[in-house]
Amino acid sequence: MVLLDRTYVRTLDDIVTRYASEAPGTLLEFWTFDNVSHRKAAEQAFMEHGLHARVHSAYKPLLHYFLEDVDRTGLKSIEIIYPTHPDCAPDRFLLETYPLPAIFDGIDVRFSADGTGGLNGFVYVVRLCRTDGREETIVVPAPNRRYVDHTGSAVVTSAGWMRVRTPDGMITEQWLKTEYESIFLDAVASVSEHPWGTTEPFFDTMAIKVSVPVDDVPLPLGEEVISLREAMHEELYFSLLEVFQIKTGRPISDRTIRPGQVVPDIAPGEIPSLRIELLPLRMPDVEGASGTLDTMTDPIAASQVAVVMEQLGGRIFRASARSGRQVLGSYHPGSDAAVMISGGQHANETTGVVGALRAARELARRPGSHFEVSPLENPDGYAVHGELCVTNPRHMHHAARYTALGNDLEYQDDAHLYEKALRVEAQRLSDAKLHVNLHGYACHEWTRPLTGYIPRGFPTWMLPHGFFLLLRHHESWSRFANDFMDRLTRRMATVPGLLSFTQGQLELYARFVGTPPFRIINGFPCDLSINETSTIPLRLITEYPDETIHGAAFVAGHTAQKEAVLAAYEIFQSMQADMPVREVVA
Ligand SMILES: [Zn+2]
User: What is the rounded average pLDDT for all residues in the chain?
Assistant: First the structure.
């Protein structure tokens, strides 16, 4: 069933058609969601009509100003006053300049907030100082639109914009609704207005095919890239989940919703288009990488996961995902204290899958080892990840994060256990008191450009900040947990390259976030919290910045995950005498 299928006129073509006959001497300025080459071509088209026009980027306008307009020759220092507004986070416009200081390495870059509370409007004030003593102050507009979005929230967000100055000095400016914004707004309206009934799931797969004439622009810093296509995926995916959260009376960011599988696939294409179609659950899988585990440079094929699980030699047990794909567990009884190991809960976090298998293979060789491993907990999400990587191998693909029901498997309830049934069985078999749950997060900036830039519900995760460790524990395990984390982070600091990689990311992160919302223990960002609801007293969650990575970076990622499992396992064994007594006798 097709909900919507339409094409759009390119905004850059449209503005040339509409404004090329303005009076000579008129100054035209536009802000659109386009690559610089296309924006320059539109400026040229105006020039051929005898008009002077500038077309700026509506997305990250200050960063684009520096990339496109600033001459670096003799540049000594940059001072930037960024705007603030009562309807957005105080650092919103600072975040939008990320990762400017790292790109202008060696130049003193300083930021400060405009203290007028939005009175100056949406502009950056930039002061450039050069070694020959020259100084200039430039005002860089960052047009934003304030509107009430699909969640009922007032948002201040990037927007297409136009400003016309006639030869007699009259200035008019207004929102220029671009094709990029129209695609998003139409998709949200179409899904919001559809009569879905009251019974979840509402569909099997909602396939959203978008084509936009933009290419990714890699930045000279790690995995950083300016990607309007990736941003569209993120904006559509999370916005549509929000539509269903509201429809079903749940809070925004609720992870128990079960609308079905929402899959936005954003391809490059000359003609902007949007098609929303309801399809059966997706089969078959796109085959992933296979080869030697230790040197795997891309996400592993699900078929090879199954082969390695057989080779481990433990007792295989299974659960079924919504599609019927099998979730595999392997239980290895032994004389050690049992540990549960899992990966792939969020299936776009791909280093944990390989890391869990590598660690399990190592443990399986050790006499007395006692563990359960389920390296790929969310096979339906993983299949979506494989499919989306065909078009965009370096995007975050959060549509692969949740299950085919659209929920986080950890939040599945007893009536709809699906993938989570494996965890329940793993705990029953092993009676483990420690669960090592391998996760990852975005290895480059994660944005939602059309609903206020900062990903709603995930502000901590929008910028990479190294290998992050979370420990959730029962209150009676507090002393144990602190000691465990101290030993674990000391051990992780011995993994070649991991601490310096983490420090490098933390340094840039701190320039944008101020006081980070986490502790640093032995050089690693950590979060320890009490959680009495967990059925396991100690749950270690690793977060490696792995979404989007391949090659040597991917190998470094699954190596860190493997080392974290082995370190946690060994430290847990060595601390058995320190276990809270109540838990031991329980
Ligand atoms: Zn995760």
Answer: 95
Residue 574 parent element (H or E) = helix 551-574
Tokens linked to 15:
């503005």
**DSSP β-bridge partners for residue 172:** 164
**Ligand 1 mean position, distance from CA 75 (Å):** 41
Dump pLDDT digits (tens) for 88-131. Answer: 999 999 999 999 999 998 999 999 999 776 667 899 999 999 99
CA of 524 to the centre of ligand 1 (A): 18
- What distance in Å separates the CA atoms of residue 190 and residue 196, rounded to the nearest whole number? 11
User: Residue 583 — pLDDT band, cuts 50, 70, 90?
Assistant: low
Residue 116's pLDDT is 76
Does residue 284 surpass a pLDDT of 80? no
Ligand 1: centre distance to CA 343 (Å): 9
Strand blocks (E) in 59-170:
75-82, 108-113, 123-130, 135-141, 144-148, 154-158, 161-165
Q: Would you state the pLDDT for residue 115?
A: 78
DSSP conformational letter for 544 = E
DSSP 553: H
Averaged pLDDT, 152-173: 96
Reply yes or no on whether the pLDDT at 288 is more than 90.
Answer: no
Residue 371: its H or E element: strand 371-374
Q: Can you tell me whether residue 78 is helix, strand or coil?
A: strand
pLDDT at position 586 is 46
pLDDT at 447 over 80: yes
Q: Is the dihedral of CA 60, 62, 64, 67 positive or negative?
A: negative
Question: Which range, of 33-37, 63-67, 391-395, averages the lowest pLDDT?
Answer: 391-395
Expressed in angstroms and rounded, the spacing between residue 212 Cα and the centre of ligand 1 is: 29
Beta-strand pair 261-268/205-212 = parallel
Quick check: 199 and 56 in contact, CB under 8 A?
no
Residue with tokens 């693909």: 397
Which residues are within 5 Å of ligand 1 (an ion), measured at CB? 346, 349, 439
DSSP 276: E
CA angle 463, 56, 210 (to 5 degrees): 65
Checking DSSP bridges between strand 339-343 and strand 434-442, what pairing results, if any? parallel
Residue in the block written with tokens 């320039």: 511
- Residue whose C-alpha is closest to residue 379's, from 446, 494, 283: 283
Average pLDDT over residues 247-275: 95
- Distance CA(374)–CA(357), nearest Å, equals 9
* 22 contact partners, CB below 8 Å, separation of at least 6: 28, 51, 164, 166
Å from CA of 542 to ligand 1 middle: 9
**Among residues 138, 134, 114, which one has the least CA distance to residue 126?**
138
Q: How far is the CA of 191 from the centre of ligand 1 (A)?
A: 27
Q: Rounded to whole angstroms, what are the CA distances from 243 to 30, 384, 458?
A: 31, 21, 17
Query: CA-to-CA distance for 532 and 426, rounded, in angstroms?
Result: 20
How many angstroms separate the alpha carbon of residue 344 from the centre of ligand 1? 8
How many angstroms separate the alpha carbon of residue 346 from the centre of ligand 1?
5
pLDDT at 582: 60
| Residue pointed to by tokens 């078959």 | 284
| pLDDT at residue 463, as a whole number | 97
pLDDT confidence of residue 415: 84
